[in-house]
Specification:
nucleosome binding; elongated; chromosome; eight-stranded mixed beta sheet; alpha+beta; PH-domain like; RTT106/SSRP1_HistChap/FACT; 40% helix
Length: 705
């Protein structure tokens, strides 16, 4: 006979839902692995008390009862497998696999038996139905009546929510059969009641999913999250796994709790509870229990008084109460030395942690993928840029996860990790050339990257050379339209060199010299207004009062040095982050002091602005007056210049009349004596000379005589 029996596509009944998986029977015991959650139920052979074979809806089923009262149900067997199972139980477990069929008479009157975790309703010796008491969420009593309420099953289309039992009164004194029935149910039911004090309380913990800050109260059988808006009660039996993951910045820690079934908020389901801690936060914790009780219950895993980092205390308490191992990252290290990889999943950026037995992505949405459910992985080129790549995972159920925007420096480390875990890589078998390139990429990451960059640079140089060749052959018009100023200078230099080489006349050289400065003057004229515009844009009044600082900035300036001393070597960005956290955590009373200072500064600023605006208005008024005065003076000077021009014309008209008899003189000619005498006369009395009429012909005749 074989030492082991394996069955695929076996269904385990847990809280009203049928979870498929694989069942293995061996000499050591019975192992069932859930395909959906990966949870493993291990029943030792020495713990088995009874085995029952019966007909159920999905063919035939196996019910196992243990010595401590636990019941395990597995369905999906074929009728022909009974003999094989019966012989195996006799040989290895020394148990008879009993055949018991359910009663199908349809009667509703019978006897209730409580055995371990089961409530069995029997008619005679045959069971009609069985209720796992762990499915019961509430038990209420009435007159001769007991009502059982059940947890809702999200996976089932139809769920049984309530069952009522009528309990007839008995003649025995001092014993109430209804209360006795209810106590038997409540002793085994999964009823969450916050009776008594919590073992310990963690205040104001930052929770990423569900988002917010929550007080976490630790009770013996469940976890209570108390927030401003929502409350959640999480039984420890629903906790699948615990993860403790370091953040990439090495200053924070993620504590992840995997839940099945998930907690509900409306239509939203949260399969993961993610807490974020700072490594610098410390706490001193005192458990609300006697030292003897702590020692008896936790067996040295916890003590009454503990102190240390906050994340260590929370993870240590959860590990002791849930009785599960905490999963931490293995020996994987990325290109930057961190134990995670920065990437994007769907629309959000997060961190992907390669673990010893799977991958976990935090935090929006959280994803946990086990190695045993992965069909293959794929390394794909990034869709937007060659500086990154995508990492695709497809499960055996056909679900695909794509983690994009991973830096290409992480490729070698991730490929080696996947290869070491013996995961199936899809693009390894596509082409032989692709296989060789991937191997070289994984072996020498840096060299491969350099070669790729050099190739890209060479292609860029070829494109530039082609572009230059096409621009040279396109003619001078494109150059002129591109930069006409530089083209004018080039033309002028060519013109001068040709002129020096040729034997041209001096007149030609002078003409060419005249052309050159004219072009330069034109360039200067074009540039002048641009400079003025730039100067006008940059202009700012240095005398204007400075804006007041906010309350946060006043507090930051006062505490900047203290933060630096508390965190030596902190960078500027980290300093501002830390300051923001301290300011958020500050109480309202302390903030009011800085807000008063900010308010005083604002008032002083408004007062200074009023004075400044009044002064600037007065200055502008004076400036307008001076401008008007200057304009008036310029007008007067212009009028005087026009009058001077009129007198000079009259004097020039005199001069040809005097010398008409002697010799002819042009209008432009004015003698030095006449000009000097005219200037002296103008200096003595400009206004009189301008107002007097021109001399008559008699005066000119007497002057000539």
């Amino acid at each position: 006979m074989a030492d082991t029996l394996e069955f695929n596509e076996i269904y385990q009944e847990v809280k009203g839902s049928m979870n498929d998986g694989r069942l293995r029977l061996s000499r050591q015991g019975v192992i069932f692995k859930n395909s959906k959650t990966g949870k493993v139920d291990n029943i030792q052979a020495s713990e088995l008390a009874e085995g029952v074979w019966r007909r159920v809806a999905l063919g035939h089923g196996l019910k196992l009862l243990t010595k401590n009262g636990h019941v395990y149900k597995y369905d999906g067997f074929r009728e022909s497998e009974f003999d094989k199972l019966s012989d195996f139980f006799k040989a290895h477990y020394c148990l008879e696999l009993a055949e018991k069929d359910l009663c199908v008479k349809g009667w509703n009157w019978g006897t209730v038996r409580f055995g371990g975790q089961l409530l069995s309703f029997d008619i005679g010796e045959q069971p009609v139905f069985e209720i796992p008491l762990s499915n019961v969420s509430q038990c209420t009593t009435g007159k001769n009546e007991v009502t059982l309420e059940f947890h809702q099953n999200d996976d089932a289309e139809v769920s049984l929510m309530e069952v009522r039992f009528y309990v007839p009164p008995t003649q025995e004194d001092g014993v109430d059969p209804v209360e006795a029935f209810a106590q038997n149910v409540l002793s085994k039911a999964d009823v969450i009641q916050a009776t008594g004090d919590a073992i310990c309380i963690f205040r104001e913990l930052q929770c990423l999913t569900p988002r917010g800050r929550y007080d976490i109260r630790i009770y013996p059988t469940f976890l209570h999250l108390h927030g401003k808006t929502f409350d959640y009660k999480i039984p420890y039996t629903t906790v699948l796994r615990l993860f403790l993951l370091p953040h990439k910045d090495q200053r924070q820690m993620f504590f992840v709790i995997s839940l099945d079934p998930p907690i509900k908020q409306g239509q939203t389901r949260y399969h993961f509870l993610i807490l974020l801690f700072s490594k610098d936060e410390d706490i001193s914790l005192t458990l609300n229990m006697n030292e003897e009780e702590v020692e008896k219950r936790f067996e040295g895993r916890l003590t009454k008084n503990m102190s240390g980092s906050l994340y260590e205390m929370v993870s240590r308490v959860m590990k002791a109460l849930v009785n599960r191992k905490i999963t931490v990252p293995g020996n994987f290290q990325g290109h930057s030395g961190a134990q995670c990889i920065t990437c994007s999943y769907k629309a959000s950026s997060g961190l992907l942690y390669p673990l010893e037995r799977g991958f976990i992505y935090v935090h929006k949405p959280p994803v946990h993928i086990r190695f045993d459910e992965i069909s293959f992985v794929n390394f794909a080129r990034g869709t937007t840029t060659t500086r990154s790549f995508d990492f695709e995972i497809e499960t055996k159920q056909g679900t695909q996860y794509t983690f994009s925007s991973i830096e290409r420096e992480e490729y070698g480390k991730l490929f080696d990790f996947v290869n070491a875990k013996k995961l199936n890589i899809k693009n390894r078998g596509l082409k032989e050339g692709m296989k060789q390139s991937y191997d070289e990429y994984a072996d020498s990451d840096e060299d491969q990257h350099d070669a790729y960059l050099e190739r890209m640079k060479e292609e860029g140089k070829i494109r530039e050379e082609n572009a230059n060749d096409s621009s040279d052959g396109s003619g001078e018009e494109t150059d002129e339209s591109f930069n006409p100023g530089e083209e004018d200078d080039d033309v002028a230099e060519e013109f001068d060199s040709n002129a020096s080489a040729s034997s041209s006349s001096g007149d030609g050289d002078s003409d060419r010299d005249d052309k050159k400065p004219a072009k330069k003057a034109k360039i200067v004229k074009d540039r002048k207004p641009r400079k003025k515009q730039q100067e006008s844009k940059k202009g700012k009044d240095p005398n204007a009062p400075k804006r007041p600082m906010s309350a946060y900035m006043l507090w930051l300036n006062a505490n900047r040095e203290k933060i630096k001393s508390d965190h030596p070597g902190i960078s500027i960005t980290d300093l501002f982050k830390k300051a923001g956290e301290l300011w958020k955590a500050m109480s309202k009373d302390k903030k009011e002091e800085w807000e008063r200072k900010a308010e005083d500064a604002r008032r002083d600023y408004e007062k200074a602005m009023k004075e400044y605006s009044v002064g600037s208005k007065a200055d502008s008024h004076r400036g307008e007056k001076s401008k008007k005065k200057k304009k008036k003076q310029e007008k007067q000077m212009k009028g005087k210049g026009d009058k001077k021009g009129a007198t000079s014309k009259s004097s020039s008209s005199k001069s040809p009349a005097k010398s008409m008899s002697d010799s002819f003189k042009s209008k432009e000619f004015v003698s030095s004596d006449e000009s000097s005498s005219a200037e002296s006369k103008k200096e003595d009395s400009e206004e009189e000379g301008a107002a007097s009429p021109p001399p008559s012909s008699e005066d000119s005749a007497s002057g000539s005589d």
